Amino acid sequence: MAENLNVRTARKAAIKRASAAARISLRRIDRRALERLTDLYEAARADIEDNLRAAGDDAGTIRLQRLQDLLAQTTVRLRQLEVARNDLFGAELLEAATAGIEPFRAAASISTTFNRIPEDTVQLLQRFIDTDGLQLSDRLWRIDRGARTAVGHAIERAVILGHGASEAARDFLARGAAVPADIQAKLGAAAANGISKAAGQALMSGEGNAYSQALRVFRTEINRAHNSAYEAAAFEDEEVVGTRFLLSPNHPRSDICDMHANANLHGLGKGVYPQGKTPYPAHPNTLSFIVAVFADEVTEADRQGKEDRITWLKRQSPGMQQAVLGSTKKRAALEQGLLKENQIATPWKVLQPRYIKQGVDVDALIATVAEPIGIVTGRAPTTFIPQGSPVSGAFNAVYHAKVAERVLTAIDGIHGDGRLPVIPIKNSPANTGAYGYYRHIRGGPAVDIHLTAGGKYKDLTLAHEIGHFLDHHGVPGPGFSSVAGAEFENWRRAVDSTPEIRHLRSLLAGPDVIASPNGPVHIKKTHAAYLLTYEETWARSYAQYIAARSGDEVLQGQLRDLRSRTTGGDYSLPHQWQDDHFLPVGIEIDKLMEQLKWIKK
Asked: Where are the domains of the chain?
């Protein structure tokens, strides 16, 4: 019996390790898929732009007579893009699903059913109807229809506008009158270079562009394929009773995923779901994942602690309730007993008319609750500096004035910023440095930055925490934009390719203790996972960027010292980059600053 127990324990441990390795493999598949998707869209944009530029006459103008032919050529190229993208998508979905079953391959009695899980998963996802009532093919069709419409309109509008302005200008000149300024401004609209640029922007960088939409679908469905296959393979093992919904270390803020990961809905433990019941994925671009749970891991306390989502929500703080529900109005409905379990994810605009039909006084309902506080520390800022102001204007150095002056002078010499709240820099008796904000409110405001008086790298640490602040508040969008914001996509690719980040990933996937010339050393895997989160990677790269671009001797000295730091019995994890390894990362940050219009010319 003891031997059997040992065998089962070893098998479960092997599956857990293999599950962690599979998640690392998924991140590799995800990055590669997004790179290849980007290449496809970039190539299509380049071909369309080149074709439009070549269509200009001797004066560089595209004539109205060429319009229909150019629109037809552009449509053909976009359809070629759609076919290539769909082929890529199918291949990447299959690979992600195949990686999902690998943790169970050694333990499973390999069968035709088991081996068919990846293909069956992909077919199921293609037939799956999401909450929006659309299948995957429907969503891709909508993206493609929007792309053809947006690019076609950009070309058509520019050609027709330029043609009309030319005709009007000729009329004015024929009468011997001066051409009005507004007509002159439109004369260049039909210029081939301008039209090609407008078409490229419509495809890849304009509001709601097809590329960013396809990127979101790729990331969501690749993750869905992996976890769906993982779940199907897990339940091939008779000892698996559920899968646990876990938050990624990169989880940027509290939201509905926190409920999925913590509510004990089935008496199997927090966030554990039987086959077919997992709520994964909770939303597009999800960063969460699932892991197998075995029968002997479920305790009596788990079985006795079963509760529904509404009961769980009512036990939470107002801040967590708001983070999960996304609305103070829905929180009021929860408190008054109106909100049902199947309405937790329903938007308020859908719920409100239902409540009114039921005779609910909605205005009185909303007045029963206030915005939650839920802050980390200090008070929320009430003053903002306008976009384009020096970054230093966003800080009140209550403490560490000399360090703040030196670091902020370096930053102000490199870039400006968006609209930022004004927050204090305070002293911390414990933390080396910390950025505080309202954690339990979606997109919650910043509160302060803390810096310890005894820190060895105070200047670099302050630049690091300011990097968090700019990531959280300087870039449009809720939460930390470095995690999933489209603006950071090229930076993420560059930083993921550096030897330092690749080394951290290999350490995370490897053994806990490794040999060294001085004997065995321990790998702090929790810290390695923390260092690999995008918000932490961004803050470290931002601090090094400021040190490199400013030439500040104090910052650069602290950077050199930090890179050479060693520890005793623990392996020294790479916090910063060697200068040559950082070059492509710094270039992408330059481009990001230019895109955000923060860079100083």
From this structure: 2-150+193-214, 238-307, 312-366, 375-601
